[in-house]
Amino acid sequence: MSKKRHCLWAALLAVILMCSPGCSKKDTGIDQGEANIPTQAPLAETVTAAPTQAPTDTPVPTAEPTPSPTPEPEGQPAHGLTEGSGLIGALLARGTEVEVTAEQDETYYAIAMGEQTFLVEKRFVRMIDQPAPADKTMYARRGAQLNASPYMDGEQLAELKQNTQLQILEDLGVTLLVRTGDQIGYVRAEMLSGRQIRSGGGSSSDSGGGDSGGDDGGDIQLSSRGSGSILRLGGFRREAAAPFAPGKGLILADEVEAYTGFMGPEDVLKLVEYQEGERYATVLFDHALYQMDIRLVRVDGDPAYEPWTGYARNRTVVYDTLWRLGEGRELRVNTQLQVIAETGDAYLCILEDGSRVFTAKENISDKQIQTGILLPTPIVAPAATLPPAAAAAPAAPAAAPAAMTGRSPLCKRTKLNDVQAAFLRRGCFLRMRV
C-alpha cells in the first residue's frame, strides 16, 4: 500500500514537472507575453520650433537737421546819441547779491553774472563784509523832490517841504535813499541838511561827490564789443574804506543799470522795440539784444536836429551825463556852446574844447546876455540958452555918491534882466562888463 502510494506520488510529481512549462505559459504568460509584446516606442518630445525672426533692416542713421540761423529781429538803423551811450545788459534790484571781480577805475565795479561781465557804478554796491550805515536823520531843503529813480529822472513821488525829516536808508553818493512817512524814494544829496534849517538861512551838510578820474583799466573784458570809451560819471567817486578785494557785493538801489559796453560814434545798432512813454528801448548790437535809454538813441531815419549856437546864462552848470548829478562845471555868463540835440528837458551841447555836456534847457539862451547897465549920457543944455542968472550962478557942489547899501532910485526905476537883478539884489552893486 505504501509502495503503491509512493508510486502515485512519484507519478503525480512527474506529471507536475512535465506540465509546469506549459502552465507557466498559460497561467502566467506575463513574462513571456510581455516579452513578446513589442514595446511601444516612447513618444518623441514635441520640440517647439523657435519663431523665425524676420530679418531686420539695418536702420539708416537719421541725419541731424542743420539748424537754420535764427533770423535777427527787424529794426531801424540807429546810433548812440553821444560817445559813451551805455548798452544795458541787466537792471538789478535792490538787495541782489553779485560777485564783484575787479575795480574799473574810480567809478565802476566789474561784476560777474553767469558767463558775462558787467560794469556797475560803485555807489550802488556795498561789499558784504562792510557794515551797513548807521541810522541817520536829515532834513529837506526848500525845493527838494522825492523821486522813484536813483538817477532822479523817474516819477516824482513828492515835493518835500523845507525841514521835512528824512530817515537815510542808503548813501548813494550824489543821491540818497530815504524814507519819509510811508514813502521810500531818492533825493539829491545837495538838497538835504544835517540840521534843521533856520528861516532865512540854512546849515550845510556833507554829501558824497567828487571828481571822477583815473585810467580805464583795460584789463576788464566786457560782453559787448562796443568801441566807445567808458562813460565818465562826474561826481560819482566814493572813497574806499579799504583796499579793494574781490568778493560778494550787495546792490543798494532799484533798477540799477549794469552795462555790457559803451557805444562809440561809429557803432551802428538797430532800434528793435520801444513803447511810448517808457524809459528804455530794446536795441540790437553785435547780434545780441540790449536795453538803452531812449533819450540816447538817434534813429538814422529821423529828421536831423539843426544845431544852433547858444549862450550860457548866469550860474549855468554842465554835466557829463544825462542825469545831471553830482559836481558839474559852472560856466561863465555868455560862454558859447553848440547845441546839437534835445534829450527830454536837457540839451546836449559841445563846448569850445570839444567836450560834450548836458545842461537844463533853461540854462541856454539863443542870444547873448546883457551883463551890465549902460547909464544914459546926461543931456546938458548949451550955455547960451541958459538964463543969465543961471549962467552966473556958481556950480552946485557935486552930490555925494549914493551909498552901496539899500536900494537906490536907479534900482527902482530901471527894468532889469535876470542877471542884472541878481547883481542888484547884492546891495545894488553894478558891475560893468565890456
Task: Report what the structure shows.
This protein has 434 residues and is mainly β. The protein is built from 5 helices and 26 strands. Strands 18-17-16-1-19 form a 5-stranded antiparallel β-sheet, with no helix packed on it. A 5-stranded antiparallel β-sheet has the order 5-4-3-14-6, with no helix packed on it. A 5-stranded antiparallel β-sheet has the order 12-11-10-7-13, with no helix packed on it. The longest helix is centred in the N-terminal third of the chain and has 26 residues. The protein is elongated.
Q: Roughly how many Å apart are the termini?
A: 199 Å
State the share of residues found in helices, binned by percent: 10-25%
**What is the averaged pLDDT score?**
75
Given the helix and strand composition, which structural class is it?
Answer: mainly beta
Q: Count every helix, treating DSSP H or I runs of 4 or more residues as helices.
A: 5
Largest sheet: 5 strands, antiparallel
Oligomer: single chain
Provide key terms for this protein:
434 residues; mainly beta; 5-stranded antiparallel β-sheet; disordered C terminus; 30% strand; single chain
